[in-house]
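fyi for ur records
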Amino acid sequence: MNKALAQPLLSADPTLRRFVSIVFVVGGLASLLLGIYDRHKLIATEWDALWNPVTSTIYIMSGAIIYRWPQQIIPATVAAFFVTSVYQLGIHFYALYFPSPITYYALASSSSFDPLAYIALFITIPHLAVLLGSLHCAALYILYFGCTTLWPLSPEGIAAEHLVIAALLSHPAYIVALRYIVKLQNQLAETQIATFRKKSEFLAMLSHEIRNLLQSLVSTIDLLHFKAKDQKSQLAIERMHKTTEQLQSCLRDADELTKLDNPNLNIEISTFNLVELLAEIGESQATKATEKKITLTIKSPLKELQLSTDRERLRQIIENLLSNSLKYTQYNGRITISFELTTAPSPCVEIKIADTGVGIPKEHLGRIFLPYVRLSHQLTEREPGSGLGLAIVKKILGALGGEISVNSKVGEGSTFAITIPRNLSP
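which gave:
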Protein backbone atom coordinates (compact mmCIF):
# COMPACT_ATOMS: atom_id res chain seq x y z
CA MET A 1 0.00 0.00 0.00
CA ASN A 2 1.20 3.52 -0.77
CA LYS A 3 2.49 5.01 2.47
CA ALA A 4 0.77 8.32 1.86
CA LEU A 5 -2.55 6.57 1.43
CA ALA A 6 -2.24 4.85 4.80
CA GLN A 7 -1.93 8.05 6.83
CA PRO A 8 -4.85 9.41 8.85
CA LEU A 9 -6.96 11.83 6.83
CA LEU A 10 -8.09 14.03 9.70
CA SER A 11 -4.87 15.99 10.18
CA ALA A 12 -5.10 17.37 6.66
CA ASP A 13 -8.86 17.77 6.42
CA PRO A 14 -10.33 20.21 8.97
CA THR A 15 -13.93 19.51 7.89
CA LEU A 16 -13.59 15.74 8.35
CA ARG A 17 -11.75 16.28 11.64
CA ARG A 18 -14.59 18.42 12.99
CA PHE A 19 -17.19 15.88 11.84
CA VAL A 20 -15.44 12.92 13.48
CA SER A 21 -14.80 14.92 16.65
CA ILE A 22 -18.49 15.80 16.89
CA VAL A 23 -19.45 12.15 16.31
CA PHE A 24 -17.16 11.06 19.17
CA VAL A 25 -18.49 13.70 21.56
CA VAL A 26 -22.16 13.21 20.65
CA GLY A 27 -21.73 9.41 20.81
CA GLY A 28 -20.18 9.69 24.28
CA LEU A 29 -22.96 11.96 25.52
CA ALA A 30 -25.66 9.72 24.03
CA SER A 31 -24.09 6.65 25.65
CA LEU A 32 -23.93 8.43 29.00
CA LEU A 33 -27.57 9.53 28.83
CA LEU A 34 -28.64 6.02 27.78
CA GLY A 35 -26.74 4.56 30.74
CA ILE A 36 -28.46 7.00 33.13
CA TYR A 37 -31.85 6.08 31.66
CA ASP A 38 -31.13 2.33 32.00
CA ARG A 39 -30.08 2.73 35.62
CA HIS A 40 -33.17 4.80 36.34
CA LYS A 41 -35.37 2.07 34.82
CA LEU A 42 -33.40 -0.63 36.68
CA ILE A 43 -32.37 -2.41 33.48
CA ALA A 44 -28.63 -1.84 33.81
CA THR A 45 -26.19 -4.52 34.92
CA GLU A 46 -23.48 -3.90 37.52
CA TRP A 47 -20.97 -3.86 34.68
CA ASP A 48 -22.96 -1.15 32.85
CA ALA A 49 -23.15 0.93 36.01
CA LEU A 50 -19.37 0.70 36.40
CA TRP A 51 -18.08 0.90 32.82
CA ASN A 52 -20.64 3.03 30.96
CA PRO A 53 -19.49 6.31 32.57
CA VAL A 54 -15.85 5.41 31.88
CA THR A 55 -16.51 4.60 28.22
CA SER A 56 -18.63 7.71 27.70
CA THR A 57 -16.04 9.98 29.31
CA ILE A 58 -13.20 8.55 27.20
CA TYR A 59 -15.25 9.06 24.01
CA ILE A 60 -15.98 12.68 24.90
CA MET A 61 -12.33 13.33 25.78
CA SER A 62 -11.13 11.61 22.58
CA GLY A 63 -13.43 13.78 20.46
CA ALA A 64 -12.15 16.93 22.16
CA ILE A 65 -8.52 15.84 21.67
CA ILE A 66 -9.02 15.09 17.96
CA TYR A 67 -10.69 18.47 17.52
CA ARG A 68 -7.99 20.47 19.29
CA TRP A 69 -4.85 18.38 18.71
CA PRO A 70 -5.34 16.41 15.46
CA GLN A 71 -1.76 15.10 15.66
CA GLN A 72 -2.93 13.02 18.66
CA ILE A 73 -5.59 11.23 16.63
CA ILE A 74 -3.99 7.77 16.93
CA PRO A 75 -3.72 7.61 20.76
CA ALA A 76 -7.17 9.23 21.14
CA THR A 77 -8.83 6.71 18.83
CA VAL A 78 -6.97 3.75 20.31
CA ALA A 79 -8.04 4.81 23.82
CA ALA A 80 -11.69 5.05 22.75
CA PHE A 81 -11.59 1.67 21.00
CA PHE A 82 -9.80 0.05 23.95
CA VAL A 83 -12.49 1.02 26.47
CA THR A 84 -15.14 -0.11 23.99
CA SER A 85 -13.42 -3.49 23.73
CA VAL A 86 -13.23 -3.89 27.52
CA TYR A 87 -16.89 -2.88 27.82
CA GLN A 88 -17.89 -5.46 25.20
CA LEU A 89 -15.88 -8.22 26.90
CA GLY A 90 -17.64 -7.56 30.17
CA ILE A 91 -21.10 -7.55 28.56
CA HIS A 92 -20.44 -10.89 26.83
CA PHE A 93 -19.18 -12.39 30.11
CA TYR A 94 -22.26 -11.21 32.01
CA ALA A 95 -24.60 -12.56 29.31
CA LEU A 96 -23.02 -16.02 29.57
CA TYR A 97 -22.60 -16.37 33.33
CA PHE A 98 -25.28 -14.07 34.77
CA PRO A 99 -28.06 -14.71 32.26
CA SER A 100 -31.21 -12.64 32.71
CA PRO A 101 -33.46 -10.40 30.60
CA ILE A 102 -31.29 -7.46 31.71
CA THR A 103 -28.02 -9.00 30.49
CA TYR A 104 -29.73 -10.10 27.24
CA TYR A 105 -30.87 -6.50 26.73
CA ALA A 106 -27.36 -5.17 27.45
CA LEU A 107 -25.79 -7.57 24.92
CA ALA A 108 -28.36 -6.85 22.21
CA SER A 109 -28.24 -3.06 22.63
CA SER A 110 -24.42 -2.89 22.73
CA SER A 111 -24.04 -5.18 19.69
CA SER A 112 -26.07 -2.76 17.59
CA PHE A 113 -23.27 -0.18 18.03
CA ASP A 114 -20.49 -2.52 16.86
CA PRO A 115 -20.66 -1.42 13.19
CA LEU A 116 -20.36 2.24 14.23
CA ALA A 117 -17.27 1.48 16.34
CA TYR A 118 -15.58 -0.31 13.44
CA ILE A 119 -16.53 2.42 10.95
CA ALA A 120 -15.06 5.10 13.25
CA LEU A 121 -11.90 3.03 13.56
CA PHE A 122 -11.49 2.57 9.79
CA ILE A 123 -12.15 6.26 9.10
CA THR A 124 -9.77 7.69 11.68
CA ILE A 125 -6.78 5.32 11.48
CA PRO A 126 -7.28 3.01 8.46
CA HIS A 127 -3.68 1.76 8.55
CA LEU A 128 -4.22 0.31 12.07
CA ALA A 129 -7.91 -0.56 11.81
CA VAL A 130 -7.51 -4.19 10.69
CA LEU A 131 -4.96 -4.92 13.44
CA LEU A 132 -7.00 -3.32 16.23
CA GLY A 133 -10.26 -4.78 14.97
CA SER A 134 -8.74 -8.25 14.76
CA LEU A 135 -7.33 -7.99 18.30
CA HIS A 136 -10.75 -6.99 19.60
CA CYS A 137 -12.42 -9.84 17.71
CA ALA A 138 -9.80 -12.31 18.94
CA ALA A 139 -10.30 -11.18 22.55
CA LEU A 140 -14.04 -11.86 22.27
CA TYR A 141 -13.44 -15.33 20.81
CA ILE A 142 -10.84 -16.18 23.48
CA LEU A 143 -13.26 -15.05 26.18
CA TYR A 144 -16.04 -17.23 24.78
CA PHE A 145 -14.06 -20.41 24.12
CA GLY A 146 -11.89 -20.02 27.21
CA CYS A 147 -14.76 -19.44 29.60
CA THR A 148 -17.06 -22.09 28.17
CA THR A 149 -14.20 -24.62 28.29
CA LEU A 150 -13.12 -23.87 31.85
CA TRP A 151 -16.51 -23.19 33.40
CA PRO A 152 -19.52 -25.03 31.94
CA LEU A 153 -22.56 -22.85 31.32
CA SER A 154 -25.77 -23.11 33.33
CA PRO A 155 -28.98 -23.98 31.44
CA GLU A 156 -29.85 -20.27 31.38
CA GLY A 157 -26.34 -19.46 30.10
CA ILE A 158 -26.72 -22.02 27.31
CA ALA A 159 -29.89 -20.22 26.26
CA ALA A 160 -27.90 -16.95 26.07
CA GLU A 161 -25.14 -18.66 24.09
CA HIS A 162 -27.06 -18.24 20.86
CA LEU A 163 -27.09 -14.46 21.28
CA VAL A 164 -23.38 -14.41 22.05
CA ILE A 165 -22.47 -16.59 19.04
CA ALA A 166 -24.57 -14.41 16.72
CA ALA A 167 -22.71 -11.34 17.99
CA LEU A 168 -19.33 -13.05 17.62
CA LEU A 169 -19.98 -14.10 14.04
CA SER A 170 -20.75 -10.52 13.02
CA HIS A 171 -17.34 -9.10 13.98
CA PRO A 172 -15.24 -10.82 11.25
CA ALA A 173 -17.86 -9.77 8.71
CA TYR A 174 -17.51 -6.11 9.76
CA ILE A 175 -13.71 -6.26 9.52
CA VAL A 176 -13.65 -7.99 6.12
CA ALA A 177 -16.28 -5.66 4.64
CA LEU A 178 -14.60 -2.49 5.86
CA ARG A 179 -11.16 -3.76 4.84
CA TYR A 180 -12.52 -4.36 1.35
CA ILE A 181 -13.93 -0.81 1.23
CA VAL A 182 -10.58 0.65 2.32
CA LYS A 183 -8.82 -1.46 -0.30
CA LEU A 184 -11.15 -0.12 -2.99
CA GLN A 185 -10.45 3.43 -1.80
CA ASN A 186 -6.71 2.81 -1.99
CA GLN A 187 -7.04 1.37 -5.49
CA LEU A 188 -9.05 4.42 -6.53
CA ALA A 189 -6.42 6.72 -5.03
CA GLU A 190 -3.64 4.84 -6.83
CA THR A 191 -5.59 5.15 -10.09
CA GLN A 192 -5.87 8.90 -9.48
CA ILE A 193 -2.13 9.08 -8.89
CA ALA A 194 -1.43 7.20 -12.13
CA THR A 195 -3.84 9.47 -14.02
CA PHE A 196 -2.20 12.54 -12.53
CA ARG A 197 1.24 11.24 -13.48
CA LYS A 198 0.23 10.81 -17.14
CA LYS A 199 -1.39 14.24 -17.19
CA SER A 200 1.65 15.80 -15.51
CA GLU A 201 4.06 14.19 -17.99
CA PHE A 202 2.02 15.40 -20.95
CA LEU A 203 1.79 18.96 -19.60
CA ALA A 204 5.50 18.98 -18.76
CA MET A 205 6.35 17.97 -22.33
CA LEU A 206 3.93 20.55 -23.77
CA SER A 207 5.21 23.26 -21.44
CA HIS A 208 8.81 22.47 -22.39
CA GLU A 209 8.06 22.82 -26.09
CA ILE A 210 6.14 26.08 -25.59
CA ARG A 211 8.92 27.49 -23.43
CA ASN A 212 11.49 26.74 -26.11
CA LEU A 213 9.38 28.59 -28.67
CA LEU A 214 8.83 31.48 -26.25
CA GLN A 215 12.55 31.71 -25.56
CA SER A 216 13.25 31.97 -29.28
CA LEU A 217 10.53 34.61 -29.51
CA VAL A 218 12.00 36.60 -26.62
CA SER A 219 15.45 36.49 -28.21
CA THR A 220 14.02 37.76 -31.49
CA ILE A 221 12.12 40.55 -29.72
CA ASP A 222 15.28 41.60 -27.88
CA LEU A 223 17.14 41.73 -31.17
CA LEU A 224 14.37 43.82 -32.76
CA HIS A 225 14.39 46.18 -29.80
CA PHE A 226 18.17 46.63 -30.20
CA LYS A 227 17.78 47.47 -33.90
CA ALA A 228 14.66 49.65 -33.57
CA LYS A 229 15.44 53.34 -34.11
CA ASP A 230 12.17 55.24 -33.72
CA GLN A 231 10.13 55.47 -30.50
CA LYS A 232 6.96 54.05 -32.08
CA SER A 233 8.73 50.81 -33.01
CA GLN A 234 10.30 50.52 -29.56
CA LEU A 235 6.89 50.89 -27.87
CA ALA A 236 5.41 48.17 -30.08
CA ILE A 237 8.33 45.85 -29.30
CA GLU A 238 7.97 46.55 -25.55
CA ARG A 239 4.30 45.53 -25.75
CA MET A 240 5.38 42.30 -27.45
CA HIS A 241 7.94 41.71 -24.71
CA LYS A 242 5.31 42.20 -21.98
CA THR A 243 3.01 39.76 -23.77
CA THR A 244 5.69 37.07 -23.83
CA GLU A 245 6.38 37.68 -20.13
CA GLN A 246 2.69 37.22 -19.40
CA LEU A 247 2.66 33.96 -21.39
CA GLN A 248 5.65 32.71 -19.40
CA SER A 249 3.88 33.66 -16.15
CA CYS A 250 0.74 31.80 -17.25
CA LEU A 251 2.81 28.70 -18.02
CA ARG A 252 4.45 28.83 -14.59
CA ASP A 253 1.07 29.17 -12.87
CA ALA A 254 -0.44 26.31 -14.91
CA ASP A 255 2.54 24.09 -14.04
CA GLU A 256 2.22 24.98 -10.36
CA LEU A 257 -1.53 24.27 -10.30
CA THR A 258 -0.90 20.89 -11.94
CA LYS A 259 1.74 20.00 -9.34
CA LEU A 260 -0.68 20.87 -6.54
CA ASP A 261 -3.19 18.35 -7.94
CA ASN A 262 -0.70 15.60 -7.12
CA PRO A 263 -2.32 13.26 -4.51
CA ASN A 264 1.21 12.65 -3.17
CA LEU A 265 2.10 16.32 -2.87
CA ASN A 266 5.24 16.60 -0.76
CA ILE A 267 5.04 18.96 2.22
CA GLU A 268 8.38 19.87 3.85
CA ILE A 269 7.71 20.75 7.49
CA SER A 270 10.26 22.88 9.33
CA THR A 271 10.24 25.21 12.33
CA PHE A 272 10.84 28.90 11.64
CA ASN A 273 10.11 32.42 12.87
CA LEU A 274 7.02 33.90 11.18
CA VAL A 275 8.11 37.46 11.99
CA GLU A 276 11.36 36.98 10.05
CA LEU A 277 9.50 35.42 7.11
CA LEU A 278 7.08 38.38 6.88
CA ALA A 279 10.01 40.80 7.02
CA GLU A 280 11.73 38.96 4.14
CA ILE A 281 8.57 39.06 2.06
CA GLY A 282 8.12 42.77 2.75
CA GLU A 283 11.69 43.51 1.65
CA SER A 284 11.29 41.47 -1.55
CA GLN A 285 8.15 43.40 -2.52
CA ALA A 286 9.32 46.85 -1.35
CA THR A 287 10.47 47.93 -4.83
CA LYS A 288 7.07 47.24 -6.41
CA ALA A 289 5.34 49.11 -3.59
CA THR A 290 7.68 52.09 -3.99
CA GLU A 291 7.06 52.24 -7.76
CA LYS A 292 3.32 52.73 -7.12
CA LYS A 293 3.89 54.90 -4.02
CA ILE A 294 2.04 52.32 -1.92
CA THR A 295 2.66 52.29 1.83
CA LEU A 296 3.47 48.68 2.77
CA THR A 297 3.28 48.03 6.53
CA ILE A 298 3.98 44.84 8.47
CA LYS A 299 2.44 44.77 11.95
CA SER A 300 4.00 42.23 14.30
CA PRO A 301 2.49 41.99 17.81
CA LEU A 302 5.38 39.68 18.76
CA LYS A 303 9.12 39.78 18.16
CA GLU A 304 9.13 36.06 17.50
CA LEU A 305 6.54 33.41 16.66
CA GLN A 306 7.68 29.86 15.92
CA LEU A 307 5.63 27.89 13.37
CA SER A 308 6.03 24.29 12.23
CA THR A 309 4.79 24.04 8.67
CA ASP A 310 6.10 24.25 5.10
CA ARG A 311 7.99 27.56 5.08
CA GLU A 312 8.33 27.91 1.31
CA ARG A 313 4.69 27.03 0.67
CA LEU A 314 3.57 29.58 3.25
CA ARG A 315 5.84 32.15 1.67
CA GLN A 316 4.31 31.37 -1.72
CA ILE A 317 0.80 31.92 -0.30
CA ILE A 318 1.62 35.28 1.26
CA GLU A 319 3.57 36.49 -1.77
CA ASN A 320 0.68 35.57 -4.11
CA LEU A 321 -1.80 37.48 -1.96
CA LEU A 322 0.55 40.44 -1.56
CA SER A 323 1.23 40.48 -5.30
CA ASN A 324 -2.51 40.66 -5.95
CA SER A 325 -2.87 43.53 -3.48
CA LEU A 326 -0.01 45.43 -5.15
CA LYS A 327 -1.52 44.78 -8.56
CA TYR A 328 -5.02 46.01 -7.73
CA THR A 329 -4.17 48.85 -5.33
CA GLN A 330 -3.93 52.23 -7.00
CA TYR A 331 -1.16 54.78 -6.51
CA ASN A 332 -0.74 56.24 -3.00
CA GLY A 333 -2.68 53.34 -1.50
CA ARG A 334 -1.94 51.26 1.60
CA ILE A 335 -1.29 47.56 2.25
CA THR A 336 -0.98 46.10 5.73
CA ILE A 337 0.20 42.61 6.67
CA SER A 338 -0.60 41.49 10.21
CA PHE A 339 -1.08 38.32 12.21
CA GLU A 340 -2.64 37.14 15.45
CA LEU A 341 -2.87 33.90 17.41
CA THR A 342 -6.08 31.92 17.73
CA THR A 343 -6.87 28.96 19.95
CA ALA A 344 -10.11 27.53 18.51
CA PRO A 345 -10.54 24.86 17.35
CA SER A 346 -6.76 24.34 17.76
CA PRO A 347 -3.65 26.54 18.12
CA CYS A 348 -3.49 28.48 14.84
CA VAL A 349 -2.15 31.71 13.44
CA GLU A 350 -4.26 34.04 11.31
CA ILE A 351 -2.40 36.19 8.79
CA LYS A 352 -4.20 39.11 7.15
CA ILE A 353 -3.30 41.07 4.02
CA ALA A 354 -5.44 44.22 3.89
CA ASP A 355 -5.34 46.74 1.05
CA THR A 356 -7.12 49.90 -0.14
CA GLY A 357 -7.52 48.54 -3.66
CA VAL A 358 -10.43 48.35 -6.07
CA GLY A 359 -12.32 45.79 -4.00
CA ILE A 360 -14.43 42.82 -5.08
CA PRO A 361 -18.22 42.86 -5.59
CA LYS A 362 -20.01 40.77 -2.98
CA GLU A 363 -21.66 38.54 -5.58
CA HIS A 364 -18.24 37.50 -6.93
CA LEU A 365 -16.55 36.58 -3.64
CA GLY A 366 -17.49 32.90 -4.00
CA ARG A 367 -15.87 32.63 -7.46
CA ILE A 368 -12.49 34.24 -6.99
CA PHE A 369 -10.79 31.04 -5.78
CA LEU A 370 -11.82 29.09 -8.88
CA PRO A 371 -9.15 28.54 -11.59
CA TYR A 372 -9.06 30.98 -14.51
CA VAL A 373 -11.57 33.38 -12.95
CA ARG A 374 -10.79 37.05 -13.57
CA LEU A 375 -13.33 39.69 -12.65
CA SER A 376 -14.27 42.50 -15.00
CA HIS A 377 -13.05 45.88 -13.81
CA GLN A 378 -11.52 48.85 -15.57
CA LEU A 379 -8.33 48.45 -13.50
CA THR A 380 -8.10 44.66 -13.32
CA GLU A 381 -8.60 44.26 -17.06
CA ARG A 382 -5.42 46.26 -17.65
CA GLU A 383 -3.39 44.04 -15.34
CA PRO A 384 -1.83 40.87 -16.76
CA GLY A 385 -2.56 37.59 -15.04
CA SER A 386 -3.54 33.97 -15.53
CA GLY A 387 -6.46 33.88 -13.11
CA LEU A 388 -4.73 31.04 -11.22
CA GLY A 389 -3.11 32.87 -8.31
CA LEU A 390 -5.94 32.53 -5.78
CA ALA A 391 -6.72 28.97 -6.91
CA ILE A 392 -3.07 28.09 -6.20
CA VAL A 393 -3.29 29.76 -2.79
CA LYS A 394 -6.38 27.77 -1.82
CA LYS A 395 -4.87 24.45 -2.93
CA ILE A 396 -1.65 25.05 -0.99
CA LEU A 397 -3.63 26.05 2.10
CA GLY A 398 -5.63 22.84 1.84
CA ALA A 399 -2.38 20.87 1.84
CA LEU A 400 -1.24 22.79 4.95
CA GLY A 401 -4.52 22.16 6.79
CA GLY A 402 -5.46 25.84 6.51
CA GLU A 403 -8.36 27.96 5.33
CA ILE A 404 -8.83 31.32 3.62
CA SER A 405 -11.54 33.96 3.79
CA VAL A 406 -12.02 37.40 2.28
CA ASN A 407 -13.89 40.58 3.18
CA SER A 408 -14.12 43.21 0.49
CA LYS A 409 -15.99 46.34 -0.51
CA VAL A 410 -15.86 47.87 -3.95
CA GLY A 411 -13.81 51.06 -3.97
CA GLU A 412 -12.52 50.58 -0.42
CA GLY A 413 -10.31 47.50 -0.60
CA SER A 414 -10.05 43.86 0.40
CA THR A 415 -8.78 41.87 3.36
CA PHE A 416 -7.64 38.28 2.82
CA ALA A 417 -7.26 36.19 5.98
CA ILE A 418 -5.48 32.84 6.03
CA THR A 419 -5.57 30.53 9.04
CA ILE A 420 -3.03 27.73 9.43
CA PRO A 421 -2.15 25.37 12.30
CA ARG A 422 0.87 26.42 14.32
CA ASN A 423 2.16 22.86 14.32
CA LEU A 424 1.36 20.85 11.19
CA SER A 425 1.51 17.10 11.64
CA PRO A 426 3.80 15.18 9.23
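The longest strand covers residues 334-342. thats all i got for now
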